[in-house]
# Entry
Amino acid sequence: MTFDYDLFVIGGGSGGVRAARIASAEGGAKVGLAEEYRMGGTCVIRGCVPKKLMVFASEFSGAMEDARAYGWDVRVDGFDWSVFRAKLDAELNRLEAAYRNTLKNAGVTAHDARATLVDPHTVRLSTGETLSARYILVATGGRPFVPEFPGCELAMTSNDVFLMDEMPKSVVIVGGGYIACEFACILNGLGVEVTQFYRGAQILRGFDDEARGHIAEAMRENGVDLHVGTDVERIEKTDAGLRVVCTSGRAHVVDAVLYATGRLPNSAGLGLEEAGVALKRGGAIAVDAWSQTSVPSIYAVGDVTDRINLTPVAIREGQAFSETVFKANPTRADHDLVPSAVFTQPEYGSCGMTEEAARDQGPIEVYATAFRPMHSAFAGRGDKVLMKLIVCADTRKVLGCHIVADHAGEMIQLAGIAMKMGATKEDFDRTVAVHPTMSEELVTMRAPVRKA
Ligand code: NDP
# Structure
């Protein structure tokens, strides 16, 4: 049987673009890719990249205060969103064009259309075209989820933040995950009055408890009005702004409400069930270790599979798929010891197990230190750094590394290499400290603070 394409990719985000490029440029496959919105996907267009640029923008308020403490004569007249927004738009346009070029140079045919499955080898485009392919890769990502409640339509999501015409003076942020905490810090740094509501007892559920507490405290000290154990009952539009009424009965009137209450896989309306593709509870596509679905010709990578929802993981999954299917190099994406960062202020870098998870698996030693870093101590800031290693008492291997500090994302990338190589606590100790740095503490913690 002849097909229009060897591979048809649905979704032009991190995972889909990597898979398409490798299959075409290195695997010699004829590849088509459909994207319904903008090439680059969540990471480039409305996620990691614009978010990180906003983190950079927001850090200048603190940096200016520090500059004064270091003897500089600086004056700040406030942040102009319109200036930043214009530059952000231009940068995203540049990146989108770069993604398109990458595909073009790799010989991939891009279709600016929504694609849906007709059967295990056929897709239909919103342009009306029907195309066949030997393999189909679903890489449609995810989208923000906002629960149903009175006034929920008045809330914005992370998608909307980058498109705001004006910066609000005050905002309520709902949620306690990555996105809620990152935007609480960003907007706070940009001078917005931020109130954050989280329904549970402590933000960043699933991360190391000690690190969570440390970040929550730092966020509060930096000016985020964080309320835990608090949920929203309704939002009303008033002349003064949006009135957010909590389950406790308290009400806050603010300019904007941002919901960051999780993300859902983009699997609805794609014709997946009709083509026989099995879904998991919650709607994510069920795949095996090779990213193959229940239909042998259909694979899926990235957030739509809800494994580890991070760009670099989706890229690895896309690469592994094309290595396996088009380069005769069977490769499984490795989901073990994935380092990651939460871009709160201070940042949180983590790799491996939390203390709580490690404790449940066997005897451990915990090495931890919290201290005022030199840069802030000199500037008179009170913020503290947390460095923490969780060590297996039997094998001495470092099972978990948790860093709360400026640039923790940069540090955890390197600690992650050592952990991936199976480094023991003694390997860390054998490494000479780089002085004076914050991360030298990782190799100088001599005695455990506790054993469990
Ligand atoms: P998360 O799943 O991390 O957090 C969702 C938050 O919303 C949780 O605090 C959750 O509470 C709360 N929540 C869920 N449902 C409700 C509800 N009905 N009412 C009130 N609160 C609710 O999702 P995010 O949207 O923050 O991020 C999605 C994913 O994107 C992350 O898991 C991550 O993989 C990725 N990401 C990664 C980033 C990075 O690498 N720096 C940055 C941003 C996103 P509870 O804890 O009680 O369930």
Remarks:
- The mean pLDDT is 97.
